[in-house]
Each structure stands twice: as structure tokens, then as C-alpha cells.
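Hi R.,

Here's the chain you asked about this morning:
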Amino acid sequence: MRKYGLYLLIAVGLLVGCQKKYTAMDTTTAQTSAEETKTTESAKVTVPEESKTSGGTDAKEPESTGKLDPIPIAVTGEYDGEWDDSQTPIITSRCDRVFVQGDGYEALKSALSAKNDEMAAAHKKEYEEYKVEAIDMRKEFTDAKFTYACNYEFQPIRFDGAVASMSWLKYYDMGGAHPTAYNDYYNFDTQTGKQLELSDMVKDMDGFRSYVKEELAGRAADGELFDGYEDTVDTLFDGTNADSSLEWAITENGVSVYFAPYEIGPYAAGEIEIAVPFKDHELMFEEAYMGASTDGWAKKVDPWDTVTYRSGDVDASVCYTYEEPETEDDLTRKLTIEREQNGKKDTFTEDVYGKIGDTWLVMTDDGRSYLYMELSSENDWKTMEVYDLNGEKVAKAGSSTDSVNGAPIQTPDAFYLTRRIDALGTYSAYRKFHVGADGMPEADGNVYTKIRTADSHEDEMPLVSTRALPVTLFGADGSETEATMPVGTKFYVRATDEETFVDMELEDGRKCRIAVRQSGDGWGFLIDGVSEEECFEFVPYAG
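And the predicted structure, written out as C-alpha cells:
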């Protein structure tokens, strides 16, 4: 079994002009995302009106919300597969694991570790069953070369000091008319690690149920739902449905209920979400789990989808599309952003280098809107392009080497971005950001924290010293003590400012700091005047 690259995530609470472009599954790739194989029709999605008027360009400094501060997580995926003699895949699989980053939250870490194991066991059982079927099909239809897929893909929704809400997207491609995908949702109390029931969140269940049914009735009137859908909804709420249970999640702005494709509507309708907002329904919910009340928001945007939104006296919509390069070796794509603002249309185009990944429409508290778009190029190098949607013309705000890297953006005032770090080794690390006055992500500090996806030191590669090294030991009480660590000490990288220090953890759990400075040749670091390569047995830099 092989691992693919990890990516940092934080939770998120949070689209007819463009036509949806469908992308067929690349059967030669074991990591094809279900996002690339959706066959539902393009949707026009409206973002609710913001209460504040737009205007002004000064970004508000982020304010701490205490328990509602976002917490970073990291996700690793393991994939497996079977190939025939021509090295054409017969079946591919992927199963994700999620890890809370940083110190604290031990109860949640334990709960998610158990959930990881539960999902991995379920995935392994299904994969082994489908593998037998896929191999038999390949033997019977040797020219078809169709590749089965069985994926459990982690989808974060909200992660903060109060709530951890998420789903695993279960994605299957078994040679039918279209793939099958549905989500299993899970909600945890961040402090206790308890997996929450809907009754833990909703105090007025009758009112909540009535709201959901009223919203569904409106969709039924538009012909979007099956006849008799009401009976299915009732059995799901009552817990008497023989085939499924009610799926729900706590977002930043409310509680959403989800119905899988075919459950109450046709496949083309996709997953049906009914969001019950906290606003104007405060008494319906448990206050301890309610999200922050802000006017800023962020929403993921898919290509060829149109997002409509309103802020103050501005009514707008935006859609982006791109043209694929003519050859596989060419990574240049023509990007087009179409925006309509108060009836005036504008089209922005430019050539971008790399594969277009996750894209977010971000609205600040003071009504400024930006498009954050990730690009991936050679060796999985990622950048984030930022586009300003506020003026008469769409404009390029800039580029950042700190990227979402698969991560949702929770709010414009607090989100985590990652980048590749080269400081006593190569690794991915994250910092906390907010949207700056110019629309670009602005870091809240200069320290990067290494992403960790290991439960113990046994699963990490340490730096083993070959000479005595001076360090600053950090005591549990905040004290600092100068010390010298002997030859053979194992150091585990934890954080760095990329210039003057690298923070480490020792085998016994103590924390320390190694002072470094960049070498004169522009590459690598010196420790106490000595090259890092002479201080450790091996320093794992990427080529």
C-alpha cells in the first residue's frame, strides 16, 4: 500500500451563465477525485445577502473568538490497486485519515484516531470484495480495460474549538451508467471528543423538522423531488428507515441536513442539502456549538458553475472556466473569469501555468470579494492566484506561494495555508492567515508549524545528532534553559521561522530550540557555525 501526499486542512462552515464541463475519470490514475467525475447538472447557487454595506478598503485585524478559533488538521491518504500484465489498472482505491495538528485536543485526537481505524477497516472490506469482481470482469472482457474505483475521501466541514464536523465521501465506479458517491457525516465535541447526536445540537426538534420539510416542499413544488418523498423524510427523522440514517452536519452558519442521490430525488439533483441557519433561530440550537456571527464568508467554487451573491447594494455573480492545453506536456491553460456586478458584465482572461485546483470565493466583513485559485505544476509545486472582484474590472491581485493545498477556507479572518519548507529537512508546514487590505493572504505570524500525521515518534524520521549541539530547552512553565545535547540525540522537527531557529521535540517529549543561520552559499543552515550536514547523520531534503 502506498501513501500519496498529505495536505493541511481546516474546517469550513460554509454556486445562468456558464455551462458545466464534465471531466471523465482518468482510468490511469489511482487518485482520481470524485470531484472530477460528477455528472450532475450545473447549478446556480445564491449566497444570502450580507447585512453590512460594501465599501472601504481597510482590512479589519482578526479578532480572537476563543472557542471558535479554527484549528488546523492534516489529511493523509493511502491508496492501493491491482494492475494487469499491460500495467493498466484493474481497480484503484483510496482511504483518507485525518489528524488534528498542534498541542491539546487530546480527546478529539483519540476519537478521530478511532474513526480513522473504523473507516479504514470498512474500506478494506469493501475494496477486497470489489477487487475480486473487478479481476473477474477484466478476465471476461479483456478489451474493455475499464478501471473500478473504491474511495473513501475525507471532506472537512468545520473544525474549531467547539465543533469538529466532517464527512467521508464514499465514491464507487463499478462500470455502471455513472459513478456512485455519497457522504457519511460525523460531528464531534472538540473538547470532550464525544460524537454528537442531532439531539445534542438541536433543542427544538419539532421546529427544526418543520423548517426542513418546508424547504423541501418548495423544491418538490419545482418538480425536483420524487413523489412520496415525505414518507422517506419522516422515516429518516424517526430513525425507522431500513436503508439509511439521517445525515447532518454543523457548519459555521447553521445545521445542514443531507439527502443522498436517489434518496428523495433523482441522481441529477445530486446530494440535496437543507441548511437551517443559526441566525433568527438561535433558540432552536445548543448555544455551545453555534458558530461565530460574522458578515464575512468563504465558499468553494467549481469551474463552470455560477455563484450569485449580494453584499449591501452590490448584486453580483461570478463564474470561471478554462481551456485545457493541447498536449499533456503543456501546463499552460487559458483562464476566463466572467463577472456581473449590478447588471454590468466584465470578462477577464489570462494564461495560467499549472492545473487549476480548489478555488474559493472569499467575502470580507466589509464587503470585499476575491477569488482564491490554486495552481499545481511540476513536482506538485503549488501557488495561489488571487483575483480582485471589486472594481469596475476584474483584476489580478497577486500570487502567493502559501496555498490552500486542498484545504477549505473557514472565514476570511482566520484560515491556514501551507507551503514547502526547507529548514533542516524538507516538509510541509502551515501558518495562520487572514485576508489583507489588498486582498492577498496576510500571515498572522512568521512561524511555520510542521504538519504531523504520525501518532508516535516511531512513525517519524528523527534527525540524529553526530556532535554535541547547543539548544534552548523550554520548560512546561514557560522557562528557558540553555543546554547542550549529546551525540546521538534524536530531534523531531516541529516549527521554524525559516531563518533563525528550528523548534524540536526530544524523545522524552521535551521541547527545545536550535539556533540556526543560513550558510554563505545560499543553501542550507549552520548550527553553532557548523554545516547542518556535519551535525546530523542525515538531513532529509527533497531534490
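Residues 69 and 263 are 35 Å apart (CA to CA).

Let me know if you need anything else.
M.
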